[in-house]
Design brief:
Number of helices: 20
Number of strands: 20
Shape: globular
Largest sheet: 6 strands, mixed
Distance between the termini: 63 Å
Strand content: 15-25%
Length: 517
């Protein structure tokens, strides 16, 4: 037995956590989920892969375990006052279900970006929903304020020993269900309650098994904390994987992770989308983005380490996703699997050059082709080409085009090319525009959000380009060009900072220069 120190307290481990996990009360609400072999993925990557199917829980997420165990440990007086929490959705559903079983009032503070499917489920389970703030941290602060004001009992979504113990029952089940060699368990990370519960139990009974956390590159708060040696607050959190959109790892989870987590891997949006397809091909089920993080990290780990013949488990943590998001996910999947290359090519605007370009492409499978006359000298073409992720087809294609004297630019990893440019090709201005500044924005997607954005940003400078497309996501993405003198740039930046929307300047982005500049 030993101690770990957090910001303001000392946590003794591991024995107290092992006892808590063994005594955790979860099965009045949760089920023991199956451990299923992913035969298709296993064959493809040369390792034995199992999915721990937490997406099959009654609320389609593992969060019901920690929520119920937390409530089960409360006193009668604490339950009588009613419970309150902040959640991006899955803990909210778990707490609402637990409260319904126990006959307790539950108030759930959810960020305004929460997918409607999660909000509706909480209401259906009897929870009282309050939408507040555009991030988990804003919702958490509001929940804590209401708890202090009205005397509600606050039930944290991850930073609590009883919640961690509830999630740790997953590890109990894994070791009961799988008796053979186990090289690594891949665990999605948001606030850290899940990986803390799994890590402390697995390392106690199977210390040779690696515990590998997987985070979205847009919300990698555990990796940032481990790198810094202390908990840090991320300046911005992306919300594609909304279930793990947390700016700071919890105190208790961080203390456990420092001791027991072997590695943290970050994955991007395209890699998450590809993992969603992998899960579907093996299970015919659809996880939410955060639910597919572990599979995305597992694939990346195998690629980085050239692992063969090992046994891995990925925690499929949840399946609460709006159906409308599938369009965006499907569009990004091939790029995430490296099965598609997005290429910009420049040809002379003269008879025969277009045919020469197509001949150079040969019999490759074309997934997208965008061209429109815009200049008497040169033409820019945006083309999507199917590629073999295990070969060098993309590099061969680029080499072939260069050998044919066709300038080429690889835009496969260019975010505005993937989100905006591919839907805007041919949009050159007929007259040269001076002093354009280009910005990419994200804002919470809800009725009236686009109008509010235009009212806020569009009244002070001339907008010379605008592109918005609903991707079925929970946040809107806009590409905007504004005309302003160079000496006004500082004023624009200050104004945008005050508005509060997350933005990135893209004035010098290669894709914009080629097709819209």
């Amino acid at each position: 037995m030993h101690s770990l120190t957090t910001d303001d307290r000392t946590i003794t481990m591991p024995n107290p956590y092992i006892k808590k996990i063994l005594k955790a009360r979860v099965y009045d609400a949760a089920i023991e989920t199956p451990l299923e072999q992913a035969k298709v993925l296993s064959k493809r990557i040369g390792n034995t892969v199992f999915f721990k199917r937490e997406d099959l829980q009654p609320v389609y997420s593992f969060k019901v375990r920690g929520a119920y165990n937390k409530m089960a440990q409360l006193s009668d007086a604490e339950r009588a006052r009613g419970v309150i929490t902040a959640s991006a959705g899955n803990h909210a559903q778990g707490l609402a279900m637990s409260a319904k079983i126990m006959g307790v009032k539950a108030i759930i503070i959810m960020p305004t970006i929460t997918p409607s499917i999660k909000v509706d489920n909480v209401v259906a389970l009897g929870g009282e929903v309050v939408l507040f703030g555009s991030s988990f941290d804003a919702a958490k602060k509001h929940a804590e304020d209401l708890a202090a004001e009205h005397g509600y009992t606050y039930c944290p979504p991850f930073d609590d020993p009883d919640v961690i113990a509830g999630q740790g029952t997953i590890a109990m089940e894994i070791l009961k269900q799988h008796s053979g060699p186990l090289d690594a368990i891949f665990v999605p990370v948001g606030g850290g309650g899940l990986i803390a519960g799994i890590a402390v139990y697995i390392k106690y009974l199977s210390p040779e098994t690696k515990i590998i956390g997987v985070e979205s590159s847009e919300s990698a708060c555990l990796k940032a904390a481990l790198d810094a040696g202390e908990r840090v607050i991320l300046p911005h959190v992306g919300i594609f994987a909304d279930g793990v959109a947390v700016a700071q790892i919890g105190k208790h989870p961080f203390a456990i992770a420092q001791q027991y987590v072997d590695q943290v891997i970050t994955v991007n949006t395209d890699e998450i989308c590809a993992a969603l397809k992998d899960i579907f091909e093996d299970t015919r089920s659809i996880c939410e983005p955060s639910g597919a993080l572990a599979v995305a990290g597992l694939k990346k780990y195998v690629q980085q380490n050239n692992g063969l013949g090992e046994t891995y488990i990925a925690i499929n943590s949840g399946a609460n996703m709006n159906f409308s998001r599938l369009r965006h996910i499907a569009e990004r999947t091939d790029l995430g699997e490296k099965r598609e290359a997005l290429i910009a090519a420049q040809i002379s605007e003269k008879p025969g050059s277009f045919r020469h370009f197509c001949k150079t492409l040969g019999e490759r499978n074309i997934t997208e082709f965008n061209y429109r006359y815009s200049d008497t000298e040169v033409a820019n073409i945006l083309v999507g080409v199917s590629t073999d992720p295990h070969g060098n087809e993309k590099q061969q294609l680029i080499s072939d085009l260069i050998s044919a004297d066709i300038p080429v630019e690889d835009l496969s990893d260019n975010e505005i090319a993937k989100i905006h440019i591919r839907y805007m090709v041919g949009g050159h201005s007929q007259k040269p525009l001076q002093n354009e500044l280009v910005f990419r924005f994200e804002f919470p997607e809800k009725p009236g959000a686009l109008l509010k954005f235009l009212d806020t940003v569009g009244g002070r400078w001339n907008i010379s380009m605008f592109h918005y497309r609903n991707h079925g996501s929970d946040f809107g993405r806009v590409l905007v060009a504004m005309q302003a003198e160079e000496n006004e740039k500082t004023s624009i930046i200050n104004f945008l900072d005050e508005v509060g929307y997350y933005y990135t300047e893209e004035t010098h982005n290669k894709a914009f220069k080629l097709f819209l500049g």
